[in-house]
Amino acid sequence: MELDRYIDKDIIARFEFYNCGHALEILYDAFPLEWEELQECLRRLRLTLADLRTAGGNEWRRNIWRAV
């Protein structure tokens, strides 16, 4: 399957994608506005190894969403 038909190239470069049960095609064709919103969320997400290693559970000390 050609992911770049459904997912913007900058997003493909940053994340791994798996398509299960044609979910990607369904999301792309049936819910295009929602799919664009999801891609924008992925584009803004910045999560580092340091963020994952920081103690505190769900208490985030920094904003992982890059300001647009």
Structural notes for this entry:
It is a single chain. The chain is mainly α and 68 residues long. The chain has one domain. It is 44% helix and 0% strand. The protein is built from 4 helices and no strands. The chain has helices at residues 9-12, 23-30, 32-44, 49-53. The N and C termini lie far apart (31 Å).
Please outline the helices and strands:
Blueprint: H1 9-12, H2 23-30, H3 32-44, H4 49-53
What's this model, at a glance?
The protein has helices at residues 9-12, 23-30, 32-44, 49-53. By secondary structure, it is an all-alpha fold.
How many structural domains in the coordinates?
1
Assembly annotation: single chain
Strand percentage lies at under 5%
Radius of gyration, CA atoms, in whole angstroms: 15 Å
Computed structural class? mainly alpha
Give the integer mean of the pLDDT values: 84
Largest sheet: none
Give the low-confidence spans.
Answer: none
Number of helices: 4
Question: What characteristic shape results from the CA principal axes?
Answer: elongated
Q: State the share of residues found in helices, binned by percent.
A: 40-55%
The count of strands amounts to 0
Feature tags:
68 residues; mainly alpha; 4 helices; 0% strand
